[in-house]
Design goal:
Elements lengths: L1 H16 E9 L7 E6 L13 E2 L1 E2 L4 E9 L5 E9 L5 E3 L5 E4 L7 E7 L6 H4 L3 H7 L17 E6 L7 E7 L13 E2 L1 E3 L2 E6 L8 E9 L4 E5 L5 E3 L7 E9 L9 E5 L19 H11 L3 E3 L33 H5 L11 H8 L6 H25 L1 H26 L17 H8 L6 H27 L3 E6 L8 H5 L4 E2 L2 E5 L9 E2 L4 E2 L1 H6 L3 H10 L5 E4 L8 E5 L9 E3 L4 E2 H6 L6 H5 L5 H8 L3 H7 L1 E3 L5 E3 L6 H9 L5 H14 L4 E3 L7 E4 L7 H4 L3 H16 L3 H9 L2 H6 L4 E4 L8 H9 L3 E4 L20 E4 L8 H5 L3 H11 L12 H12 L5 E5 H5 L33 H5 L2 H13 L3
Parallel strand pairs: 1-9, 9-18, 10-18, 19-20, 19-37, 20-21, 21-26, 26-34, 35-36, 36-37
Antiparallel strand pairs: 1-5, 2-3, 2-6, 4-5, 6-7, 6-8, 10-14, 11-12, 11-15, 13-14, 15-16, 15-17, 22-25, 23-24, 23-27, 27-28, 29-33, 30-31, 32-33
Helix pairs in contact: 4-10, 7-10, 8-10, 16-17, 18-19
Amino acid sequence: MFLKHNVSNKITNYNCLRMKVQFYLRFQTEFGDSLLISGNTDELGNDDLSKGLPMTYFNEEFWGVTIELKRKKINQLQYRYVFKTKDGEIIPEFGNDRTADLVKNGIAELQFMDTWNHAGEYENTFYTAPFQKTLLSANASNIKIKTDKHPTHIFKIKAPLLQKNEVVCLSGASKAFNYWSTEKLCLMSKQGNWWFARIDLSEEDFPVAYKYGVYSLKEKKFLRYETGNNRLLYGEPAKKRITVIHDGFIHLPNNTWKGAGVAIPVFSLRSKNSFGVGEFSDLKLLVDWAKASGLKLIQVLPVNDTIATHTWTDSYPYAAISAFALHPLYTNLEKVAGKQHADKLRSLKRKQKQLNDLAELDYEEVMKFKLSMLKELYELLGKDCFESKEYQHFFENNKHWLTPYAAFCYFRDKNNGSSHFDQWKTNGVYDPRDIEKLTSPGSKTFGDIALHYFIQYHLHFQLKEAADYAHKKGVVLKGDIPIGIHRYGCDAWVEPELYSMCMQAGAPPDDFAIKGQNWGFPTYNWKRMQEDGFAWWRKRFEQMSSYFDAFRIDHILGFFRIWSIPMHAIEGIMGYFVPAIPVSIVEFGEKGIWFDYYRYCKPFITDEIINQVFGIHAQRVRNEFVVPNEFGRYELEMGTATQRQVQDYFASLDDTGENRAIKQGLFDLISNVILFEEENSEGEKFHFRFGMESTISFGLLDWNTQQKLKDLYVDYFFRRQDDFWKKEAMHKLPYLKRSTNMLICGEDLGMVPRCVPDVMKQLGILSLEIQRMPKETTKEFFHPNDAPYLSVATPSTHDMSTIRGWWEEDRARTQRFYNNILGQHGGAPYFCEAWINRAVVLQHLYCPAMWSIFQLQDILGMNEKIRRENPNEERINIPAVPNHYWRYRIHLTLEDLLKQKEFNEELRGYVVHSGR
């Protein structure tokens, strides 16, 4: 008897220490697919997705798996499901909020009946930072309602779009649910993202039919049931077992929330107190105006430090020398000085007014005076600043990027303001041991280096203060993440292995830039980045989330493939997509094309072509830049055989009209090819030059060869790459999206592969829809009424002319827009009158897109009195101009804009009546 009793105690003790957990997931798969479950236990792989526990296929509807967990080892279970395709691709479900408390007295078994959370579900958008922290925060508080003390089942559901004082309720065909009575409903509690109800179904007959609904606590009445068929619960309860039902999202309209916003670069803002440029502190005034006008979002361009040369060329906001540091341009000197040292700024009052009265930003002057004053204030305030707890907390959280950035700035300025670290006298190669010595407080260089700590600390708090102010006013901030980094910036200096330094990122030719675009950035080494789980990107997102609620991914197509230009080239037209499936030499033979390497891969130059390209300068070109070859044609001289060699050659000559013409003509000769050979392919693999048909070389081929090359060209660009590019994107974007809770919007413009919309939809990434850049090639204009819900609709961006400016660019196109899109009869007015501008804005406000965002210039264009007189002065950037000066500023102060009560009320009326 004693032995039996002892064994019984051991069994009881064992059961108390362990819990059986069953997982069942509703998920339909195809043959070869599989499912895993990942979680925070040894059994589930400790959150390593690749070590997730395989699940078992039960039937067409369910997969499942059972494990035993030690109670004392972990109190709370956190898990997620992972889909593994037949190709081995791993796709985790969205979210990280499946949790369960394992310390439940008397409970020996937990059973989960789960629904896969697809990232592309509309509702997931409402659990991102802008909605949870600001836009829907008034409706997001936890609610506790009494439920059964000894439940057999816990029902859980998400309902993000309930209004204030509304709760989720349960009703169904059982006694526990009061037989569908809307008078005696089971009201649910809310904790975190989930609505839940603990219900005892031990006396019920199964299956149980039920539905979720909405109940008003304020009116104390049932409002409505969810749509769709009844839900069914199978499986009878068992002793000492609790079944948790994760039912996903309540079936209610999920596309009803819409918002409007304004887009403006920070440097373009103008206030009475700004120093010739918009500053972070000016965002508060813009927030006040947005609030008064009914706008919920402010979108800005990148605000990272771009100081590479200390010249106006640093005004380009997409060439940051650090993906983490903020630009000193946006510092408010008064806030740095404080009341204690306000007198130091008096000597700058006249200069401040002079710069602030300018129509445009004088970048070099503003930077000269700001940096000079910041150095003076650093001498006065630096010591006290560094001793403060706030600064020490900031430094500790940011030293991983702040220390190398400050050292980089020190070496840049020590080397005559050049960021070309490959030309520095010392420290051109980053060595963390050297940097640690230089940045230690006792070093001789610490004082100069710590200046940049001081500046970044103040920038951080000034932007954070503006962001917090925006949130209090119910307005969210949307930032911008450039696709690239500065070739000679801090990021490339510290971790060059993360980038392909031998290539340049850009874009293929389009209507805006017929020679393509060469941004000069190195492309990303994605394989290397993936090795540490995209740590650089995760840190970047974490830093950005300190200030922004949402962000725009500049050129999201670069995550599928990037237009890559060799370093020897200048024009974007010399690039090709990387990665891409090349055309093999065998394919030419299969198509019946005689492959002539020199004819297709080298510049095709004849006397006729030289005469055609250079005209009166043809003989000079023959004498100086080409030599005859064995094929009876010409080839370029060795010293001017590449575009970069040509550029370097002409840089030393006078800038005359003749020299400019010859330089461009040589560029055109060099790009007069049909194919680019893939590096290290030994003449076996090739990429088509974009726009092959427009080359003189192609035009001189026989008709039969032209047609065969066309077929191969179409296959190369528009058929063979799609699945390949989709897989490339799915190796990156899901991981990056999971690393942040900011709302992600993609700039999916340009030559968009067919797979892009599907990937963005799967991941719940908002697309960008622009009226004059339709994605359907058969349409001249995109109509806002056709916008998908998960999108941002806008009439223009910073890379385009405004509505008013565009109206005057092409009279025939404007006429078609006037008749076909605006639905007006007769001739279009020559100038964009206020009512036309207003009509375009209203089209976007009333469209189905989640967000309608407008350049501030386009909003002001609705009013004849307050808009700028000349619309051609309102453009921010011209992509076709490689060295564009980014200097646009709004023509009136934000204080004056706030005083335009009548206009602001008018705008607010439009926004409110459109349902935004």
